[in-house]
Amino acid sequence: MTPIVLAVTECLCLAIAAPAVVGYVRWLKARLQGRRGADFLQPYRDLRKTFAKGMIIADTTSWIFHLTPCVVVASTVAAAALVPVISASQPGDQLGDLFALMALLILGTIFLALGGLDPGTAFGGMGSSREMTVAALTEPTLAIAILSLALTAGSTSLGTITNTLLTTPANAIGPGHALALAAFLIAMLAETGRLPVDNPATHLELTMIHEAMILEYSGPYLALLEWAAALKLTLLLTLASNLFVPWGIATSLSAGALALGLAAVLAKLALLATLLAVLETRVAKLRLFRVPELLAVSFTLALLAATSSFFTR
Amino acid sequence: MSEAALATALTACAAGAVLAMVWPSGAGARRLSLASACAGCSAALVAAITVLQGSLSWTWRSEALLQPLGGVSLRVDPLGAFFLLIVAVTGAPASLYALGYLRHLDGQVRGRAVHALFNVFLAGMCVVPLADNVATFLFAWEVMALSSYLLVVSDPEQEGAAAAGLWYAVMTHAGFLALLAAFVLLGQGGPLEFPAMRAGAATLPPASQGVVVLLLLAAFGSKAGLVPLHVWLPRAHPAAPSHVSALMSGAMVKLGVYGTIRVLFDLMPPLSPWWGGAVLALGVATALTGVLYSVAEPHLKRVLAYSTVENIGLIFVGLGFALLMRAYGNGVLAAMGLVVALLHTLNHAVFKTLLFLAAGAVIHGARTSSLEGLGGLIKRMPHTAVLCLVGVLALAAVPPLNGFTSEWLTFQLLVAGARYTEPALAIVLPLALAAVALVAGLAAVSAVRLFGIAFLALPRTDSARDAHEAPAIMRAAMLLPAAGCIVLGLIPTLAVAQLTAVVSDLGLPMGQLDTGFALVLPLVGSQLWPIAIAALLGAGAVVAAAVAQTSRGPVRTDTTWNCGRIAQSPRQEYTAAAFAEPLKRVFTGFYRPTHEVSLDVHPVSPYFVRGITLRADFAPWMEQTLYTPLIRAARWVSGQAGRLQTGSIHLYLAFLPGALLVLLLIARWIR
Amino acid sequence: MDALFSRLTMTGASAMLLLALVVMWRRHVPAYVTAFRTQSVVLAFVGAIVAWMGEVPELFLVAAIILGLKGWIVPRILAGMEARRPDDRGLRPLVNTEMSLLISGGLAVAAYELSRPLTEVVSLPTRSGLPIALALILVSLFIVVSRRQVIAQIVGFLMLENGVALLALLGAYGVPLVVELGVFLDVLLGVLVMQALVPGMEKTSAG
Fold first, then answer.
1. Which chain B residues contact residue C120 at CB under 8 A?
2. So where are chain C's domains?
């Protein structure tokens, strides 16, 4: 399998699996809350239905409104191309590394914020302002988490980090690794707009961040944005599992290893999605002005991870 | 070839200045002087590129000019040529832009003066990076400072211009004195020529060395905009005409960076790591201060001025890192640090020029300079909006533009350095990395706020509603730096290759930083391929657009949903102050906001309120703690000195023989 | 084996530090008491590991006493104090949460730097946890300084004791048994005395 084919396949895997991950989280939350819940394929049906609907474009918007869904989808897919999914030989390493991945996600966030400001509604402005604040405050945590990974692996490129951890598993025992994973997961909750930072199921305007920005979108644009959000969640979960717990990922390009890698990543995704659903059922949404406290906690964890990585080197 | 090009450049600027004053018709004077400035910049660009490509180095002396001070001595080497390149890259679009921007000044003497001063400013900035002795350097420095001061105060209708000019003049001249003192100390009594200083710097006693470095950092740091000496920048840059602001932010503050590099890397031997750490810490503090204020400022050009402060901070982070690595003997990382700092200098010059020119177009078209009064300009000024979007995305450091390249390299630099086993670095560099990441995030907030509030949604005032698009020449002038942003972002090796010459000339070993179109870092093994990322983004966007088009649902335009209100009004939009509100709450210790509420009540009863005014502002704590005591002390001293003016003519006459007597006594004692 | 010993004790020490950070984050006193109880349990666990892998059998007794005294008795006393007079005066701490966390992070970084001479002198395999113990001591002092509720200050002081005990465990495999028993008696008496003095403390430190 040539590298390009492998890269495209990995990207497609993430893209296709994304709505299923979101569907599974929703179903599990419903069950935990005592409801029956729609099955995990429901998001696919929702996307198909939304896609076939018509669009109403607000008359106060401009071409930025039309550009936003395209840029958000493009940046999320480009970021997904960098993530090691099934195989540790990462063709995406030639494109960029972890910092490039974070920057691509910020590109999507910026355009979402612009798309929220474009219609000129108060909700859009509110969502944009809050989203940019949260995105800015998660940056230091992600940078230090990347640093603590890079200190042990010697590089910030994703393939190298994964391979180093596969060859020297002793690095994973000890507080540095676990702290970095915890910090990364908290930052991931903020980036993808899950509880306790933002409630993806609410439609009360004052409690929304992500939903407030896409309030004016309908039809195919809304379908694209929802799918991009699901893809962002899936790719960050895959990143967390394959960078911190990479065992099971394929180290050779044989069919058996690849099949095992696929099964491993699906299992890890299912585990993380289960934990996410349990967490979302357990906690309440934080008010916006207490979110920086949570992000300060994750930053402190990341800082402790980096300093203890220094010590165990 | 480069000699001829450089001579052409300086002659063109001089000719432009003269033509502006003497040409009979006002419009002709404008066109000729600005065309001449543009030609001068292009010639300078050619000269600079020739020197960088060939890694040349030549000198030129003239004893006739500036004879009492030691003659003019120029030395063109790769470092100077690189900063000449930056001046040229900023000056050419600015001169083209002024052709349209200052058309309304055609009949007035003030217009001619502005064009002449613009040429003089450019000439001064071209000479500063090439100066090889103290006389030339300080002469060109002063020419630059005076002409820019006059340009800052040139617009009588600009409120606050006079005060801004005063701050600027005082601080730049204080810097001048510090420079003079430092150069005299560095000269150690010998000739005040840079080659002599370079040779003799190793024999400088350590205390002297410390004083020299401190004075030079203060002077050049103040010019560049390092905290806490940056306070002139957000006052002076908004007051000047927009093309001059672009030149000041794009080129003049970079000459402060040039001075720092010239002294710390070229003239002086490797310093102790404390200086590197101090420069790094100053850079981080500057970046944080700049970005935090740029997120909260309502004035369009002041947002950009603070953003300049932020980027200067990032440049000094790279410089501090290079100094640290040089002190610890790691030449490869030091070279990388210097390359990253210089690359960011170039990238910032390009996108800040674009942004200031776009801000000028906005203020020219919408006749208001506060973000709270703008809005909806994307429909009235479509081309300016696109160009401004490119600049704003470069400011926010997103791939695949040039701002992202230097941001990415800065991160990689700090990660590579943090793997060093030196314990002090193990603590300092992760904190620096976290701070730079926070700065990057906040810069994205500022960028979205700038573009979103100014261009999107509905116009907030009548003048924004009646805004008109900028003239074609202004848009063409903005196209140049926009293209530069995109090209430098897609093919960063264009710039990085030029920097090889600069860094090798300074004696640092330059590793291979690129392979073809991708950036590959030798120590950390990470790779960035901007063209591929851009291609991937483009393909993804096209596919998404196509997918959206193939939907069979009906598309129609209708009024925005506004929860049942009858009409959408601009009062419902988020304001610039509201956008920054969550951040203002998080960083309230930094902003120290003050609120003043005043009620206007009906005379009959205090319960009938006619109007409420809320005035929200930031306490300028930096000025209050540092500058107000100094100003008060200066006032006190001059008050005491004023006691000498008693009005009695006998006392004034007595000063003359009294001074003579004192001098005779001193001469007798010294013998 | 040594590497496993080192990593296990370091993980335990980090868990104790994280529990001290919980006091920085949460605002209500019951959370503080739970954090202290969990921290004492982890300390007992670390003590047991040192007893087993470091082959110092009397530390098993010490661990058991820690579990009983600091893991059960003292938290019950504290919870009782809180239940009788809920200290609802001002949930906002003296230093706001983000700054507290950043300062704690800074203290942890400082502890790493400060304990470098210490780790060079000690030659036991547990020495990599010493900076974390010092960080715990510094963070506990900061808790005492910056929290408003009196019981929070008492919890900070008790966490300081935990930190000192951890330092002794990791640095020298614990102090002699007699000294340990004396310290435990001190802690118990101290908490009982503070229980009587809390109403007075609340009145004087009225802010």
1. none
2. 2-200
Cα→Cα distances B551→A58, A223, B323, C58, Å: 19, 11, 58, 76
Spatial separation of the C-alpha atoms in residues C82 and C28, rounded to whole Å: 10
Alpha-carbon distance of A1 to B392, in angstroms, equals 41
CB of B423 less than 8 A from some CB of C: yes
Helix (H, G, I), strand (E, B) or coil at B76: strand
| In contact, B225 and B256? CB cutoff 8 Å | yes
Rounded-to-integer distance, Cα B218 and Cα B214, Å: 6
DSSP A253: -
Parent domain of A220: 3-311
Q: Which residue from C minimizes the CA distance to A299?
A: C102
DSSP string computed for C152-201? HHHHHHHHHHHHHHHHHHHHHS---HHHHHHHHHHHHHHHHHHHHHHHHH
Indicate the number of domains in chain A: 1
On whether any CB of chain B is under 8 Å from the CB of C112, the answer is yes
Among residues 464-523 of chain B, which lie with CB inside 8 Å of chain A? 518
Subunit contact C7:A178, Cβ cutoff 8 A: no
Distance CA A129, CA A5 (A): 40
Chain A residue with minimum CA distance to B419: A151
Exposed e or buried b for every residue in A101-115, given b needs 16+ CB within 10 A?
A: bbbbbbbbbbbbbbb
| Spans of chain B below 70 pLDDT | 421, 511-516, 522-524, 671
Closest Cβ–Cβ partner in B451, B559, B585 for A59 = B559
CB B336 within 8 A of CB B416: yes
**C-alpha–C-alpha distance, residues B120 and B281, integer Å:** 36
Q: Tokens 């030196």 appear where?
A: B422
Structure tokens at C45: 């666990």
Contact between residue B310 and residue B429 where contact means Cβ atoms under 8 Å apart: no
Alpha helix (H) ranges present in A154-290?
158-167, 175-192, 210-213, 219-244, 255-282
C-beta atoms of C3 and A311 within 8 A: no
**Chain segment A197-231, per-residue pLDDT in tens:** 888 887 776 677 888 888 889 999 999 999 999 99
Contact B255, B125 (CB under 8 A): yes
Give the span between the Cα atoms of A301 and A132, in whole angstroms. Answer: 22
Specify the pLDDT at position B71: 80
Q: 3-state DSSP call for residue B615?
A: strand
User: Which chain B residue is nearest to residue C116, measuring alpha carbons?
Assistant: B423
B608: enclosing H helix or E strand: none
- Distance, CA of C146 to CA of C149 (rounded, Å): 9
* C105-160 pLDDT, tens digit each: 888 888 888 888 888 888 888 888 899 999 999 999 999 888 877 888 889 999 99
Q: Which of A228, B395, A232, A136 is nearest to A128 (CA)?
A: A136
Give the pLDDT band (50/70/90) at residue A68: very high
Peptide bond connecting A196 to the previous residue in cis, omega within 30 degrees of 0:
yes
Contacts of A293 in chain C (CB under 8 A): 25, 97-98, 101
Q: How many residues does chain B have?
A: 671
**Distance (Å, rounded) from C-alpha B290 to C-alpha B622?**
12
Question: Distance from CA of residue C32 to its chain's centroid?
Answer: 11
In DSSP notation, B4-49 reads HHHHHHHHHHHHHHHHHHH-SSHHHHHHHHHHHHHHHHHHHHHHHH
Looking up tokens 């942004």, which residue turns up?
B355
The DSSP secondary-structure symbol of B228 reads T
Query: What does DSSP say about strands B518-520 and B514-515: parallel, antiparallel, or unpaired?
Result: antiparallel
Alpha-carbon separation of residue A239 from A14, A23, A102, A117, C89 (angstroms): 11, 19, 11, 31, 44
